Input
Amino acid sequence: MKAIEFKDEVLYLIDQRKLPVYEEIFECKTYKEVEYAIKEMVVRGAPAIGATAAYGAVLAAKEFVKDEKKVFLAEMKKALDLINKSRPTAVNLMWAVKRMKNVIAENSDLEPSGIYAKIKEEADVILKEDVETNKQMAKNGNEIVPNGATILTHCNTGALATAGYGTALGVIREAHYTGKNIFVYADETRPRLQGGRLTAWELVKEEIPAKLIADNAAATLIRDGKIDLILVGADRIALNGDTANKIGTFMLSVIAKQYNVPFYIVAPVTTIDFDIETGEEIDIEERSSDEVTHVYGNRVAPVGIDVYNPAFDVTPNENITGIITEKGIVKAPFKDNMLKL
Ligand code: MRU
Output
């Protein structure tokens, strides 16, 4: 399954808003459609957003390639600044945009057509690198998965959330395919149900033994000794190890600590924000109240009720057993060890 594919100057995305009921493709022919796709969560998951943003730069370059260089460069800046703001928390987005801006700066002596070619080359590298990174992370992470482990996961961190294979779900895949006889509990992850709709879809497709649970069931499973390991992804990791991930992750980490269940973050180095010291500096996205008042377009809360809907929370470093990256597993002291990466 390819969540992101670029062919003949069109970006094809699996429309994740429609899964699992409809398996539809969303086509982006312009960078504005890319910005829309990220903002509206046609595509979501930190690494997937980064790769999509890179192809947004390709589509912008295609649009302005016939313009004179000065105009081309100004329009590229405008386009990349717009894409950069499409979602605030996942740092992979800003990382990909910065990488594209660097390619433009490094090749500014070329004509627009030459810069366009370099941008396309770089986007392809980002997509390819992400799959390789995920596979390496999966191998590293598999080392801490005991045989026969029951693993709890949150949100969707699979092939849909990345360029392929996945982060936390990538480790789960690897453990399954190396014959570890694992069992997965997937949180449904309200309000947008990325666990119920997307992780469950990937688990069913790959025939990985699993049960879907309401988020509220996780504490009982952990207390009753039914969970050996918790694996989650990340949207942004501060230098001290504080980690922003889908809302509800923090709550899981508190319960895990209380009952001594290992709690690991699985994320590529591109999700580490080396510019921020702690999680307090992470911008937490707040999304529309409709996500809480409605389920699948059906109203479940009364008209007139006010809503608080943060999309992410920050898990403090002291609740994290380790951060599994493609370069190895980082443990406390996180800052010292992360800087060695
Ligand atoms: O709002 P989303 O669906 O983009 O949030 C996704 C998550 O929180 C994931 O856990 C995170 O991006 C890691 S994905 C490999």
In short: Residues 4-135 form a domain with the Four Helix Bundle (Hemerythrin (Met), subunit A) fold (CATH 1.20.120.420). The two ends are 31 Å apart (CA to CA). The chain has a mean pLDDT of 98. Residues 21 and 197 are 9 Å apart (CA to CA).
